[in-house]
Specification:
By secondary structure, the protein is α/β, with parallel strands linked by helices. Helices cover 44% and strands 20% of the residues. It has a seven-stranded mixed β-sheet with strand order 3-2-1-4-5-7-6, sandwiched between helices. The chain is elongated and about 65 Å long.
């Protein structure tokens, strides 16, 4: 006969398994992850040149590699938003080991279209063309209010002030200031 503790442990493992399966499905269907090469991330962080007073937001942060690089460079507040809970859990695990007790690095499982960027000074996106089109008006307003937007591989159609930088892998970084 099972006692309460054993039953609780079994239910916990079953729920964790189901949550993992659900997260894998969300990753595969809603937010396919494409890793940017480390050398390119270094180039992007150099071009963005963050300072301690900057608040950096990565929309679609995945495993948080750029968020960590930006924190290492500028030591300002860095926030990563991603729709995948699995990516956010992984990024938080990495943060815990690399930057223990650091409150300036935040990861949040949130829809990038609803993410609050009002307090940010720099926003980075590596999203597809359709997503960039949906985010366009929000990003344009952000730039009008003094923010900087950096988009890897995809531009924001119709947005003014576009500057293109070719990176070492032949892909482009679109910069809006």
């Amino acid at each position: 006969m099972l006692n309460g503790i054993t039953l609780g442990i079994i239910i916990t493992f079953v729920l964790l398994f189901l949550c993992t399966i659900l997260s894998i499905l969300v990753n595969a269907l809603l937010s396919p992850m494409s890793r940017t090469p480390s050398k390119v991330l270094d180039e992007i962080a150099d071009l963005m040149d963050p300072s301690k007073k900057d608040v950096f937001v990565d929309l679609g942060s995945g495993d948080g590699r750029l968020v960590f690089k930006m924190y290492e460079r500028g030591h300002g507040k860095c926030i990563g938003y991603d729709i995948s809970p699995l990516s956010i859990i992984w990024a938080n695990v990495i943060r815990t080991f690399r930057f223990p007790l650091q409150k300036e690095i935040i990861f949040d499982a949130q829809n990038v279209f609803k993410a609050d960027i009002s307090k940010a000074t720099m926003v980075y996106c590596f999203l597809d063309e359709k997503s960039m089109g949906i985010l366009g008006p929000k990003l344009e307003e952000f730039v009008k209010n003094g923010g900087e937007v950096y988009s890897y591989m995809y531009n924001v159609d119709g947005m003014k002030g576009e500057k293109k930088m070719e990176l070492s892998n032949g892909k482009e970084l679109y910069i809006y200031k």
